[in-house]
């Protein structure tokens, strides 16, 4: 009995070992792209969920077309719960254990900045599909090769478009700024001040409010008294909604311009559909801006039933497409080779646009102010603003 | 007109600070402790309120209520549900995190109440998630214009509710048996016990009342500030400042402090918004320098 069973056990062991080896080899053979973002804990979690949906869809589309370098593309996601220590832990795990070939960043700039040194040291090409802080792509710009790229909207580029609109739309030339006291709001206010100066506009008022404030009527009353007919707001989604509610309270409706933070659904819910309409803000794409965009939106909707912020999904989709194109061009998944290929990428087809040399050694931003549009919420949808002012804006107006 | 606008806005926010500050005051005077997790209690109350409205109108507990869902009936139900749950929680807080430390030297109760608050906040985060939830006012979202300045009906409601509650509590504290018992325990727990007052029952009662006040503040403020896990932290910090500024041991002082901070914030915003927080906390430091027990507080000689 014993002699009979023993070889069978060994056989079974050998068989399962072989199977494990085979599946292990298959996983090792995949191209793995890490995705490290908040998807549950902060107000930006919706952005992370949307970006992940976009990245996964890009992988599915690539795999349906035969994969990259004949290999399957897999997105390996980790939730950083909005906490920098968790974001660092995720990155170490993705780089050292999962052995990802590339990384996509998260939604909070601060979190992403916390782990960039890891991917830079380990030579993992990284794209930020959402986070907007200037320093993300700048930090290693002076010590090339810089492994960090972006397919998103840098804050300063967004403000350049807002300032161009303000300069064209203001009748009285009186423009005011209001921003929250977070790093995001204050950097935005500083950039706005500098870019308005390029248009020879000195704001008639520059006000602040706390990030948890819900009544800004005192500050806005001051702005009203200054005679401003255009207002640039730089704050997060829920604060922007409270600014709109406070404007309603004092019955003052200047042309109100803001960043893409307003894409976040809390803005629409807190301000309500009527007040939300009055805010003009930036975006890189809308679901109906092109047939390809419409197709991606419909596919995502069919799969998940909802896309909280479509723009983030589109940017993450394009980020994966750019990584894939660079790997094809480099004919390798080696980090250094892919980094070099990204910098010399001749072209890649994305959903936001057809990228022609999106990056160079000096420029790690795939999108710039020229690629942005102004949008507003109409009937629960983000719609491009097409008015006399937007039609008059020329490339010369986009001062940086 | 600008000044009137600032005054109206300041009174609305100030009344919320006053409500929560009063809650700090009554527990402090009777037990020399208070709930440092009051902000989490307030946030939880606003979220329970949302769930109560959703339960009645949409038959679910988590989601976003539409403006039509908020009627007087659903709003009052939300208020009652939040008060009931929070009163119970106030009792649990007292038994688990406060009772053992009452009358003891040391600051263990500070940590235990902060810990209790953090547990509540994280449980709420697990259940309701981080997104702020907008909720309409039962009075509608229109703007009422008074002498050319705009005010939301909910702001008037919050102000009036606070005023009525404060008058009722002031009367109850000074004129009813229960109020006298509370004041007696506050004056001297041992003497009150000798007089046949159940000091333990009084302590439980004040924690229940304090938590119920946080519940009222949380539900009433939701249509103004939205309901979210994070809404209470700053509100309770301002309320705590109001209590210290007015005089933690004097309930009337706390209410006065609440309105004072609300008005100050709003009026300084009108002048130079960058100075707002500096002015509020600067004033607190200056007041405490000259009057360590707060504007309306009285310094007692400590007996050892």
Automatic annotation (TrEMBL), chain A:
The lineage of its organism: Bacteria, Pseudomonadati, Pseudomonadota, Betaproteobacteria, Burkholderiales. Belongs to the leucine-binding protein family. PANTHER family: LEUCINE-SPECIFIC-BINDING PROTEIN, PERIPLASMIC BINDING PROTEIN OF ABC TRANSPORTER FOR NATURAL AMINO ACIDS. Residues 1-28 form the signal peptide. Keywords: Amino-acid transport, Signal, Transport. This is ABC transporter substrate-binding protein. InterPro entries: BCAA_transport, Leu-bd, Leu_Ile_Val-bd, Peripla_BP_I. It holds the Pfam family Peripla_BP_6. Residues 31-380 form the Leucine-binding protein domain.
From TrEMBL, chain B:
The chain crosses the membrane at residues 6-28, 40-58, 70-95, 107-128, 156-173, 194-221, 227-248, 255-272, 278-299. Keywords: Amino-acid transport, Cell membrane, Membrane, Transmembrane, Transmembrane helix, Transport. The keyword Cell division does not apply. Signal peptide: none annotated. It is a multi-pass membrane protein. It is found in: Cell membrane. The keyword Membrane applies. It comes from the Bacteria. PANTHER family: ABC TRANSPORTER PERMEASE PROTEIN, BRANCHED-CHAIN AMINO ACID TRANSPORT SYSTEM PERMEASE PROTEIN LIVH. Belongs to the binding-protein-dependent transport system permease family. LivHM subfamily. This is Branched-chain amino acid ABC transporter permease.
